[in-house]
């Protein structure tokens, strides 16, 4: 039995949000069974999967630890005295309880994530091993001097083989969703996403895209590609359930695979990284 006190971060969120954040081994199947058996309670009361939680609520979870936690084998793609690049697996947050960062903190006395990936997005995550490197890298990300490229397997084949897309994004924190508009609206922020067609399969009607983020907003790639008619296969939020079932894919086919350091200004102790590209191969199913 485990207990969790709900923090402000999860106020007015669905109960599944805090459970997935705290337990890296928890699967949808295990969670649904627990709800059916009434093995999850709030303040002693039995609840269902749609229950909204609030700050101060006490969650009681009657699920064995073997189903809540899984051993994480972290693959190090690149490391030197200042930075570390990890190949993040699926179903784990970059920060928070039982996160990529918390696992690394068991090995490193100082480790700082420089950016984030969605829980179900796999691939390269850059960490700083000291505060000086962290401050430099955060500024370089802000100044667009570090490129991030993703591989996305999408349903459909774009007519244009390469395109830079501009739109506007609104984040609904209560629903944990974002919405895309082609025109400016109140509360929406500008986003820019580029894609290049790498592979296409006309028979199965899917494509592999290289996607570059010029702005880094929540769910930007997933929502933006879905908005233009090319949802990521396996995406449960912005994708198409029938398509996901057709491809037998339960997690989004989105992978962070390239980091490029294109410094235009002095990078101090990290100047040696200028013009360096860190790339990791990934093969879709």
Give structural notes:
It contains 7 helices and 15 strands. The two termini are 37 Å apart. The protein has helices at residues 15-22, 28-36, 65-68, 100-104, 131-142, 220-227, 241-246; strands at 2-5, 40-42, 45-46, 58-61, 75-79, 83-88, 112-113, 122-128, 146-155, 162-172, 177-181, 189-201, 206-213, 254-261, 277-279. A hairpin with a 2-residue loop joins strand 2 (40-42) and strand 3. Among the domains are: 2-68, Roll (Structural Genomics Hypothetical 15.5 Kd Protein In mrcA-pckA Intergenic Region, Chain A); 149-256, Pseudouridine synthase, CATH 3.30.2350.10. By secondary structure, the chain is of the alpha+beta class.
Task: Describe the structure concisely for a colleague.
By secondary structure, this protein is α+β, with helices and mostly antiparallel strands. The protein has helices at residues 15-22, 28-36, 65-68, 100-104, 131-142, 220-227, 241-246, and strands at residues 2-5, 40-42, 45-46, 58-61, 75-79, 83-88, 112-113, 122-128, 146-155, 162-172, 177-181, 189-201, 206-213, 254-261, 277-279. A hairpin with a 4-residue loop joins β10 and β11 (177-181).
């Amino acid at each position: 039995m485990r207990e969790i006190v709900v923090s402000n971060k999860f106020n007015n969120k669905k109960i599944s949000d805090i459970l997935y954040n705290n337990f890296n081994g928890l699967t949808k199947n295990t969670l649904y069974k627990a709800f059916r058996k009434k093995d999850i309670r709030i303040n002693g009361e039995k609840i269902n999967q749609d229950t909204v939680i609030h700050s101060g609520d006490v969650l009681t979870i009657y699920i064995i630890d073997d189903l809540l936690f899984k051993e994480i084998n972290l693959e190090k793609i690149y490391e030197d005295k200042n930075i570390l690049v990890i190949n993040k697996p699926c179903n784990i947050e970059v920060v928070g309880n039982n996160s990529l960062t918390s696992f690394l903190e068991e090995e490193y006395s100082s480790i700082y994530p420089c950016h984030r990936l969605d829980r179900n997005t796999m691939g390269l995550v850059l960490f700083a091993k000291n505060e000086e490197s962290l401050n430099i890298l955060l500024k370089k990300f802000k100044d667009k001097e570090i490129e991030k490229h993703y591989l996305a397997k999408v349903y459909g084949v774009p007519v244009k083989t390469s395109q830079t897309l501009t739109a506007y994004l609104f984040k609904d924190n209560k629903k944990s969703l974002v919405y895309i508009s082609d025109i400016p609206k109140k509360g929406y922020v500008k986003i820019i996403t580029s894609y290049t067609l790498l592979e296409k399969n006309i028979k199965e009607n899917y494509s592999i895209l290289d996607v570059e983020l010029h702005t880094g907003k929540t769910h930007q790639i997933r929502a933006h590609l879905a908005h233009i008619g090319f949802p990521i296969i396996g995406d449960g939020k912005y994708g198409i359930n029938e398509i996901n079932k057709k491809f037998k894919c339960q997690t989004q086919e989105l992978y962070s695979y390239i980091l490029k350091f294109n410094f235009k200004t002095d990078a101090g102790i990290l100047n040696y990284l200028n013009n360096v590209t860190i790339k990791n191969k990934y093969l879709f199913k």
